Amino acid sequence: xxxxxxxxxxxxxxxxxxxxxxxxxxxxxxxxxxxxxxxxxxxxxxxxxxxxxxxxxxxxxxxxxxxxxxxxxxxxxxxxxxxxxxxxxxxxxxxxxxxxxxxxxxxxxxxxxxxxxxxxxxxxxxxxxxxxxx
Length: 134
What we know:
Blueprint: E1 27-30, E2 36-39, H1 62-91, H2 96-105, H3 107-128
Antiparallel strand pairs: 1-2
Helix pairs in contact: 1-2
């Protein structure tokens, strides 16, 4: 097993079939440090490894992160409240026209409720991110 391989393998003559790859002896070459590198006949050599340093990625500022989180929380509350109103209307026997009619009939109260939600969101935002001037 440790015998050296011949420098050149014999050529195939017409009529001979090529030996399957798993029965052929491995090729041996030496890298730039003199270490043997084995690979099967017919396989290309492994490409040299390159180390690439990616640029440093900067994230969002903490203020922008808070703004995005608060925005998504407010949107989630609005979606849940809208779904709850629609579910109540449908459960009491309403349809889409019933939902539209209910919303339009109660538009003044919905407007006042939305104003209250906006005021509450503003108050919550000041509690989460207090004014830096104080």
